[in-house]
Amino acid sequence: MRNRKILQPIRSWKLRKKLIVSFVALVMLPVLTLSGYSMWQMQLAMSEKVQLTFSDSIYQISSRISRQFERYNAALNFLSLNRQLSNVFENEESSYYDQYEAMNYVLEPTLMMVQQLAPELESIGIYTSNHHLKERNEAVLYLERLEGKPWFERFSMRQRLCWTMDDGAVTGLARLMKLSVKTPDSMAYIRVDPEMIFDVKLENHDAYGMCVYHDDQLMYSRAFGMEEIDLASIRDRAEVINGQRYMMVTHDIESTDWSLCIYCPYDVMNIDMRKTFVSLGMLAIANLILLTLMGRFIADSISKRLSRLNDSMSAVAAGHLEQPIELEEDSDEIGELSQHFGRMVASLEEHITTNYENRLLLQEAELKALQSQINPHFLYNSLSVINWMAIDCEAMHISDITCALSSFYRSVLNNGSSVTTVSEELRNIEAYLKIQTCMHDGSFETVMDIHPDTLDCEVIGVMLQPLVENAIEHGIDCRREMEGARLIISAQREGDALLFAVEDNGPGMTEKQFEESVSHSAKTYGLKNVQDRLKIAYGEKYGLALVSGREGCTRIEVRLPRKVLKNHAQNEKT
């Protein structure tokens, strides 16, 4: 069952589409398979090459940064292991003159020498706890300045050299050699702009990021052409961050306890690979278009005659039997199918005509059989007896009703004929209304608007009575108050047609209610019977119609072709 549902859309395709798709699929399937496998192998090779190139680039960058730190470590060692500097900062009893000489002839020349070896240093100097010496610009600073730094608390004085990030600058610290255990603590420092160290360019990559960290502390980070990612993701070596895959390469920076990580999105790294794939994809699309055109040409040559035959079948299915059917003269299967279809349509048209005539005869026979079930002589004699008995009893109302009923059934039976005149149909309506008026105690008004030119026209019998009955039962009787109830019956000429209308001022009828009353599923058969007989007698374009009446009234119209009953016209003349 599931396979059937999956294949259902394909089964509904036109034959031409199936041929085209099958042709393209059979040709493209092996090509796409081989191309896909080749592209997959190419992607693996290119990806491996890109990763190797990326790793080599990161290693070169890390080596260059490590060499810079080796230079800075050498400068710090030069300061921290200088015995003359240690003597200057350990002496707590020197005079001001001795301090002046020490600063001018020992400290400043030493610092200037280091500055000349590394001119990119922002600042260089000594932190000391010897308060006998005075602070001197950046060359001499008290060690207490560092005690509030978070990183200084973790820095052990037993550690001789360390690197940290302080106030946006890369700062290196080295403890000065102590000549005595009790002498004050001092350490040399240097500061470097991080851009001077980490301003690196990753070739062939427009978007990448880098960060330098120590344990859980981020020292430096920067991103080019993309957003930075957090340290936690870098430490966890997360490959997918915010739905994007990254390649990360981490190296330890020698001469420090720092680590360097450079990351780059796979999409950026594989940009050349995507260009290759786009070129191959465009070539595949061009081939697909060419193959589709070829398949279309082949499919058209096969399905053209089937399409013409299908159009003819669709026209017949829509009821257009009168359209000529183009028969194939070829002797292949399609030609034979076309010829058989032409003979079938001719036979079908003949069968429909015969069936329609038989249906008319059957309808007429059924109506006559219904009329013959009532013995008119017995009915008229019975009503005549009732009438004379009412006259003897001086019950004139009963006599009037009996006469009206006799007149009504006389016009209904119509001597077994299904055709009558408008005048006879109106006599039937007058008799019926006389009975209904008596039953309703004269509570509604009847208006007859009949054009004289319509009286001798031919209509089917008992055509208006069901409409009048429907108007009384579902219109007049459904009013909240009977006062002002009115029924209007009209008959007019409109060119070569007759227009009858029955209108009531009841609660009204919706279009949906009207359609239900004349449909095959109607609960009542009055309006449906009239509708069916009108379409059988006059054709599908004639019948009942619900139109808007005046002042919200319900108006049902009957439009018929105008036809004068010749026998009746001659009888009227004689």
The main pleated sheet reads as: 5 strands, mixed
Q: Write down how many β-strands occur, each being a DSSP E stretch of 2 or more residues.
A: 17
Return Rg in Å.
Answer: 55 Å
Bulk shape: elongated
Keywords, please?
alpha+beta, five-stranded mixed beta sheet, five-stranded antiparallel beta sheet, 17 strands, 53% helix, 19% strand
Description:
The protein is 53% helix and 19% strand. With 574 residues, it is of the alpha+beta class. The strands form four sheets. It has a five-stranded mixed β-sheet with strand order 2-1-5-4-3. Helix 2 packs antiparallel against helix 9 and helix 12 (396-413) runs antiparallel to helix 13 (422-439).
Task: Provide a concise account of the structure shown.
The protein is built from 17 helices and 17 strands. By secondary structure, the chain is α+β, with helices and mostly antiparallel strands. The two termini are 79 Å apart.
Outline the secondary-structure elements.
Blueprint: H1 2-11, H2 15-80, H3 83-90, H4 96-117, E1 121-128, E2 140-142, H5 150-154, E3 161-166, E4 169-175, E5 186-192, H6 194-198, E6 208-214, E7 217-224, H7 231-235, E8 240-241, E9 244-252, E10 259-265, H8 266-269, H9 271-317, H10 333-372, H11 376-392, H12 396-413, E11 419-421, H13 422-439, E12 445-450, E13 458-460, H14 465-474, E14 486-494, E15 497-504, H15 511-517, H16 526-538, E16 543-548, E17 554-561, H17 566-573
Parallel strand pairs: 1-2, 12-14
Antiparallel strand pairs: 1-5, 3-4, 4-5, 6-7, 6-10, 8-9, 9-10, 11-13, 14-15, 15-17, 16-17
Helix pairs in contact: 2-9, 9-10, 11-12, 12-13
